[in-house]
């Protein structure tokens, strides 16, 4: 599996479920992204996530950041049928990244940060993950892009 390194204009032309994630795209009501979108529309100012430090993320922000992250993943070739491993501690960023992955049509493969390297390698191999996202990747992935549209994820 590769670790995604994000760069780009934020545009994507790939067809399929994840196409248009960054603009005007609407999730099917029968999916987890669909539930998140409905919650963002119905309760935009309500708290959706609370971090260990007490910081909150509103439903509207959750949905926006998941779409930004989903568009970045689509830009890098992630899409329907792919499996994306998520190796990170529990946090609001983990939840947002997980939703971003689902917005592309890919499956989330959650990995525990408490596992030994051999256990992680075994699951990555058996799940045939296209990409691995780690703690340090999550904040850049799920935050809005710079004015230039660039988004970078460290290796």
Topology at a glance:
Layout: E1 2-3, H1 32-42, E2 47-50, E3 56-58, H2 59-75, E4 83-87, H3 92-103, E5 107-111, H4 117-127, E6 131-134, H5 135-142
Parallel strand pairs: 1-6, 4-5, 4-6
Antiparallel strand pairs: 2-3
Task: Characterize this entry briefly.
The protein has helices at residues 32-42, 59-75, 92-103, 117-127, 135-142, and strands spanning 2-3, 47-50, 56-58, 83-87, 107-111, 131-134.
Descriptive report:
The two termini are 12 Å apart. The protein contains five helices and six strands; from the N terminus they run βαββαβαβαβα. It is of the alpha/beta class and 155 residues long. It has helices at 32-42, 59-75, 92-103, 117-127, 135-142; strands at residues 2-3, 47-50, 56-58, 83-87, 107-111, 131-134. The strands form two sheets. It has a four-stranded parallel β-sheet, sandwiched between helices. Strands 2-3 form a two-stranded antiparallel sheet.
What value does the average pLDDT take? 79
What's the total number of strands? 6
Strand proportion: 5-15%
Distance between the termini: 12 Å
**H/E series:** EHEEHEHEHEH
Over the alpha carbons, how many angstroms does the gyration radius reach? 15 Å
Low-confidence stretches: 1-20, 144-155
Largest sheet: 4 strands, parallel
Strand numbers in spatial order across the main sheet: 1-6-4-5
Estimate percent helicity. Answer: 25-40%
Structural class: alpha/beta
Categorize the overall geometry. globular
Number of helices: 5
């Amino acid at each position: 599996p590769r670790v995604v390194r994000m760069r780009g204009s934020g545009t994507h032309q790939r067809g399929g479920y994840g196409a248009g994630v960054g603009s005007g795209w609407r999730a099917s009501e029968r999916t987890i992204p669909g539930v998140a979108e409905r919650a963002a529309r119905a309760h935009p100012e309500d708290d959706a996530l609370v971090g260990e430090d007490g910081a909150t993320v509103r439903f509207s922000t959750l949905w926006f950041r998941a779409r930004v992250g989903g568009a970045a993943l689509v830009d890098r070739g992630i899409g329907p049928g792919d499996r994306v491993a998520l190796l990170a501690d529990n946090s609001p960023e983990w939840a947002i990244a997980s939703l971003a992955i689902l917005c592309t049509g890919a499956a989330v493969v959650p990995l525990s940060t408490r596992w030994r390297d051999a256990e992680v390698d075994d699951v990555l191999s058996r799940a045939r993950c296209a990409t691995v996202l780690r703690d340090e990747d999550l904040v850049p992935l799920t935050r809005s892009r710079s004015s230039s549209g660039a988004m970078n994820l460290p290796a």
